[in-house]
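Lab notebook, bench 4. Continuing the backlog of folding jobs that were queued last week. Each job is logged with the same field layout so the records can be merged later without manual cleanup. Today's entry covers Iron-sulfur cluster insertion protein ErpA, a 111-residue chain. Filled in by technician R.K.

JOB TYPE: sequence-to-structure
TARGET: Iron-sulfur cluster insertion protein ErpA
LENGTH: 111
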Amino acid sequence: MKIIPTDKALFMIKKIAKENNQDLIVRIYTDMIGCKGIRFGIAYDEVLENDEKHQIGDITFVADHRLNEYADEIEIDFVDTPKQGFVFKSYPEYKKSCSGCSGCGIKFLDK
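JOB STATUS: finished
OUTPUT FIELD FOLLOWS
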């Protein structure tokens, strides 16, 4: 899996880490798969045994190796809108559907 952060995302990761006295180890994760696709997240963390590591400058991005099942590439950006935060785009995009399974928001990946 390839991780592609924008300059703005890299800047904000460093800024937030400095403000919160965090190491520059950042986990990319997904905690839900539903009709609208995959919801990715980002958190400061530590490197775990089965993690894939991606070094970009002085930031170490880590992700569980199983994330490869859902994305070949993940772009990370930071937006300054009223709902500011990190945004993600994965390639290939995970197929969105609405099968009427009533599973929206409850399909969590095993951790």
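OBSERVATION: The longest helix spans residues 7-19.
SIGNED: R.K.
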